[in-house]
Write a structure and sequence with these properties.
The protein has eight helices and 14 strands. It is of the alpha/beta class and 323 residues long. The protein has two domains: 117 residues, NAD(P)-binding Rossmann-like Domain (Rossmann fold), CATH 3.40.50; 170 residues, Dihydrodipicolinate Reductase, domain 2 (2-Layer Sandwich). The strands form two sheets. An eight-stranded mixed β-sheet has the order 8-9-10-7-11-12-13-14. Strands 3-2-1-4-5-6 form a six-stranded parallel β-sheet, with helices on both faces. Helix 1 packs across helix 7, helix 3 packs parallel to helix 4 and helix 4 runs antiparallel to helix 8. The relative contact order is 0.16. InterPro entries: Gfo/Idh/MocA-like_OxRdtase_N, Gfo/Idh/MocA_domain, GFO_IDH_MocA-like_dom, NAD(P)-bd_dom_sf. Belongs to the Gfo/Idh/MocA family. GO terms for molecular function: nucleotide binding; oxidoreductase activity.
């Protein structure tokens, strides 16, 4: 299987390319970039293009990975599908629920896969977590925090015309967490907006409270304007787990749980795992088998959840757009 990357971003250079090189089904990696020069070399090296249209037209790739500003995603997703390619997109895959539905509809019509690269849930700890909840549950509540310090002004996340803002950037983490813990069918969503960027006006944070599909309660705080926090607390009837660095685990990082069961505390460790590689393994396996629906369902479920959060925020702030 041949991979073409559109957009030689920082996340591509740091995580996607090294991870793709580990995936057995990926034989060749080509790059298209308008803003950066051809690298001197890269794993499984294929072609280099300085034009996205030319890359889609000339490349014999099977799979396209899009790593472009959010506002460009829909155009290039549809262009890649029209060119007969399977597509993976950095989160958020599409900026709106309507765009997500349009992309999935076209992918289904063409017999192609389209997937959002929200990869944290592919860490093995989530398989262990499902077993833990089954043993100590039912799940009663979960609380997430993902907060980062303010980004440099030039970062695209600070600019609405490029698809910036905290809800678009961090909303996929909130939505995927709710899906992983509670299944589909999130209900009773309420939300509180954070601040606005002093220069560009994009939303800088949001808090959300929701009823999960399995009846548990979820609360989450996501922000571009605070001391770094990255954790998830999951509480069942007779046990709880606190997971640090849960949303962005480095490939070489040993994850730890702070686990409590019936008032007895211990620490659980997990061997390092490359979530991007595990995600791409799952994507290429789905392409090989022809069964794409898991990824389509997840994309639509998460887009629906983000839309519900946006609607809840807009009901309190009708003059300020969130998506």
């Amino acid at each position: 299987m041949r991979l073409l990357i559109l957009g030689y971003s920082s996340i591509v250079e740091r995580r996607v390319m090294p991870s793709a090189a580990k995936v057995g089904r990926i034989e060749e990696i080509s790059i298209a970039s308008k803003s950066r020069k051809r690298p001197e070399g890269w794993p499984k090296q294929g072609q280099f293009f300085d034009d996205y249209e030319a890359a889609l037209r000339s490349s014999d790739c099977d799979l396209v990975y899009l790593s472009l500003p959010n506002a460009w995603h829909e155009h290039w997703v549809m262009a890649a599908l029209a060119a007969g390619k399977h597509v993976v997109v950095d989160k958020p895959a599409l900026m709106t629920l309507t765009g997500s539905e349009r992309a999935v509809s076209e992918a289904r019509r063409a017999g192609r896969l389209v997937a959002e690269a929200t990869v944290f849930g592919y860490h093995p700890q989530f398989e262990t977590l499902a077993a833990f909840i089954a043993e100590t549950g039912p799940l009663t509540q979960a609380a997430a925090q993902f907060i980062i310090p303010p980004l440099p002004i030039g970062n695209f996340r600070n600019h609405a015309e490029l698809g910036g803002g905290c809800l678009l950037d961090m909303g996929p983490y909130a939505a995927a967490t709710m899906r992983i813990l509670g299944g589909d069918g999130v209900a009773d969503v309420t939300a509180l907006a954070g601040g606005r960027h002093a220069e560009t006006g994009v939303d800088m944070g949001f808090s959300v409270l929701a009823r999960l599909g399995n009846g548990g309660a979820f609360s989450g705080h996501f922000s571009f304007e605070g001391e770094y926090q990255n954790r998830l607390l999951v509480v069942g009837r007779s046990g709880s787990v606190l997971m640090e660095r849960v949303f962005t685990p480095p490939a070489d990082h040993q994850m730890e749980w702070r686990r409590r069961v019936r008032n007895a505390d211990d620490v659980v460790t997990f061997e390092p795992a490359d979530t991007f590689a595990r995600f791409l393994e799952a994507v290429t396996a789905a392409i090989a088998s022809g069964d794409h629906e898991r990824f389509h369902r997840d994309l639509l479920s998460d887009a629906t959840c983000r839309d519900m959060i946006a609607t809840a925020l807009a009901s309190q702030n009708p003059a300020q757009p969130f998506m």
